[in-house]
From TrEMBL:
PANTHER family assigned: HTH-TYPE TRANSCRIPTIONAL REGULATOR RUTR, HTH-TYPE TRANSCRIPTIONAL REPRESSOR KSTR2
Signal peptide: none
Annotated protein name in UniProt: Transcriptional regulator, TetR family
InterPro entries named in the record: Homeodomain-like_sf, HTH-type_TetR-like_transc_reg, HTH_TetR, KstR2_TetR_C, Tet_transcr_reg_TetR-rel_C_sf
Length: 200
């Protein structure tokens, strides 16, 4: 596509193209090996369009993850606010988390493999968003402990961090061509986690 043709891409569509192209390239050849020029070529947009939306490749990577994390946080907030027992809400929360991860496996795997390369304000913004999710999750655990449905011999912070840390590390050992699909893996991890946290 010629440079003059690329300028005709609507701004919103250009952003979607950039995100899709970056996600595919980061996943296929790695974040560090991918250049902004390659992203621009794959997205068929101008370099100006890329820098209109993202100040750097680092911001592009971070934005992809932050949008998904914000979506996870919003979904958890809705689930946690429901008028149902804490154990039912926790079951729905962890099941929904794995469903969301399955729906967005490629960009979330890209982030998990590349997050150690992000620093400064971008890393701080991610940490802040992750803390919001973590606090909502921990509050739900504490509510269940007070209601007597979750074991209280382990601190809610330990339960929360152990579970969420295990989720973050899935990319290190899960193989798409292995014996389990992502959905099947999620079902087994949900069962293992809930059996470990429930009283009795």
């Amino acid at each position: 596509m010629a440079e003059q043709d690329r300028t005709r891409v609507p701004r919103g569509e250009a952003r979607d193209r950039i995100v899709a192209a970056a996600t595919e390239l980061f996943g296929r050849q790695g974040y560090e090996a991918t250049t902004t020029r390659q992203i621009v070529e794959a997205a068929q947009v101008t370099k100006g369009a890329l820098y209109h939306w993202f100040s750097s490749k680092e911001e592009l990577l971070t934005s992809i993850y932050r949008e998904l994390l914000a979506e996870q946080t919003s979904r958890l907030k809705t689930i946690a606010a429901a008028d149902t027992p804490a154990d039912a809400r926790l079951h729905l929360a962890v099941t929904d988390l794995f469903a969301h991860m399955d729906d967005h496996a490629e960009p979330l795997t890209v982030w998990a493999r590349s997050m150690h390369l992000v620093a400064g304000e971008h890393a701080a913004a991610v940490r802040a968003e992750r803390r919001r999710y973590q606090h909502l999750f921990q509050d739900l655990i504490e509510e269940g402990q007070k209601a007597g449905v979750f074991r209280a011999d382990v601190a809610a912070s330990v339960i929360t961090n152990t579970f969420l840390s295990s989720v973050v590390q899935i990319h290190r050992w899960f193989r798409p061509d292995g014996p389990l699909t992502r959905r099947e893996l999620g079902t087994q991890m949900v069962a293992l986690f809930l059996d470990g946290v429930r009283v009795g």
